[in-house]
């Protein structure tokens, strides 16, 4: 598999998603929306627990589910749309493996959405400092764990969106699968802990989460390789 073709494809996907209207809006709307949620809803959100949270922690909780849904919808709709426009009949002529297309889209969407979330978290940290509550060592540790958890959720949602985008034949079906099935994928890594099979440890959750990401991506690549374009 020529590296040059793979790099060109990945670069094209990154630039395409980064310049898309959805992504440009997300980089602006996500920080503004989550910050507005903190300022307006913190006293009533999460059963009153939001009032005790800093901006960084509050915004990370809001972003986890929202960003994951956006990432899954972006990649799922993009795959279905390009297949309906017969884009892949041209791409498969290139000297690269079919699954490279799915992996390039996954990396592009995941990177763009993750960057938007990191920008939002940095904004939350700036707000905490401006409010006279600079993060302590414990806060930074919790923020780091929240960031890793959020990245895992985004990765799982993006991988699930890629799989549903490959399997679905219409945008509507892909959206329904993403919203009603894919968004529950984040619950799966919690099941071994909830059932008492594994101890309640943060890193166990992370290992299971990224193993699930790898499985979903493998299934998406396998399905795309066997699909008739």
How would you explain this protein's 3D organization?
With about 230 residues, the chain is mainly alpha-helical. It has one domain (about 5-225). The chain contains nine helices and no strands. Helix 3 (about 55-85) runs antiparallel to helix 5, helix 5 (about 100-130) packs antiparallel against helix 6 and helix 5 packs antiparallel against helix 9. The chain starts with a helix and ends with a helix.
Secondary structure: elements and pairs:
Layout: H1 3-19, H2 21-41, H3 55-84, H4 88-91, H5 98-130, H6 137-167, H7 171-180, H8 191-194, H9 202-226
Helix pairs in contact: 1-5, 2-3, 2-5, 3-5, 3-6, 3-7, 5-6, 5-9, 6-7, 6-9
Distance between the termini: 20 Å
Compute the number of strand runs.
Answer: 0
Q: Which stretches are poorly predicted, pLDDT < 50 over at least 5 residues?
A: none
State the major sheet: none
Return the structural class. mainly alpha
Strand fraction equals under 5%
Total of domains: 1
Which radius of gyration do the C-alpha atoms yield? 19 Å
Overall pLDDT confidence? 78
Spatial shape: globular
Question: Count of helical segments?
Answer: 9
Please give the share of residues in helix.
Answer: over 70%
Query: What is the chain-wise order of helices and strands?
Result: HHHHHHHHH
């Amino acid at each position: 598999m020529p590296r040059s073709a793979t790099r060109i494809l990945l670069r094209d996907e990154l630039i395409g998603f980064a310049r898309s209207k959805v992504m440009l809006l997300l980089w602006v709307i996500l920080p503004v929306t989550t910050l507005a949620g903190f300022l307006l809803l913190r006293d009533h959100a999460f059963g009153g627990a939001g009032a005790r949270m800093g901006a960084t922690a509050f915004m990370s909780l809001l972003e986890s589910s929202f960003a994951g849904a956006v990432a899954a919808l972006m990649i799922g709709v993009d795959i279905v749309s390009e297949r309906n426009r017969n884009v892949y009949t041209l791409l498969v002529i290139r000297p690269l493996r079919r699954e490279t297309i799915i992996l390039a889209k996954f990396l592009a969407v995941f990177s763009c959405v993750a960057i938007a979330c990191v920008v939002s978290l940095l904004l939350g940290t700036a707000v905490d400092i401006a409010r006279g509550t600079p993060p302590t060592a414990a806060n930074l540790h919790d923020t780091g764990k929240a960031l890793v958890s959020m990245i895992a959720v985004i990765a799982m949602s993006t991988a699930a969106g890629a799989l549903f985008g490959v399997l679905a034949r219409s945008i509507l079906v892909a959206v329904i699968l993403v919203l009603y099935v894919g968004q529950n994928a984040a619950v799966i890594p919690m099941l071994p802990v909830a059932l008492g099979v594994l101890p309640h440890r943060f890193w166990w959750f992370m290992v299971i989460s990224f193993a699930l990401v790898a499985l979903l991506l493998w299934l998406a690549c396998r399905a795309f390789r066997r699909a008739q374009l």
